Amino acid sequence: MPKNQVLRRPHRFKRKKPILRNRWFLIALSFIVAAVLFIYFFSFSGLFQIKKIVVSGENNVSEEEIGFTIRESIGKRILFWETNSIFWISPKYIERAILDKFPQIADVKIKRVFPDGLIFTIEERQALALYSRNGNDFFLVDKTGIVYEEVFAAKNSLFVILDKANKEAVAAGKEAMAAELFLKIWQLKEKIENLGLLLKGVEVLSEERIAFKTSEDWEVYLDRKENLDWQIEKLKLVLEKQIPAKTLQELEYIDLRFGDKAYYRYRD
User: Fold this and answer.
1) pTM for this one?
2) What fold characterizes domain 129-266?
């Protein structure tokens, strides 16, 4: 054997284990398969598809129409498949769909009843007044100032708000007027009626002038840009000290808009 010759051990190549026999791969694959089966079961199993819909609290809105809107809103698409699974419904989306479709409804509460049911509790708006901008078209308005349904005014005995200062079209489901103005009108109505007068309506004539109409068909003029408490106090004083109760029905108006005085006029 030559002196400088080095002996080398033959190199052995380690055989790679097939990936299908890799323990960690099999664990990960098991988790993926389990997750897919889990999602599929709760998304597409007939057990959890919405079948029972119960609606309560509706009086003036058709239960059938509400049910149709609900069924249109509960469907969900997952990739290429549609599902009505109770786990995939969006209560906020369904609620918004109902409120947008039916302005008469003020609130909706939704309860899941497993495995396949939904209960809807409807709260309808209650009419507080009639609202109009032109004196011809009248709408019901609720305590929050929301316009929600057009009606025939002659068949209603509600307090009437005639908003002549607003020329825009009335939109159901929207505020009749600024919330601050609506609240102010209602506060003034209560204060005037506390003086013993019965009111049947109010006209918003401009940015400043409003006129309340009494049941005896005479009017009270106020300036909403000025001190309203002082104007109500002037009304109280003039009714107590200057205008006899027996002559109220002969009045044409009481004007409270100017300074410290209350001006009034009788019909000719």
Assistant:
1) 0.81
2) Rossmann fold (3.40.50)
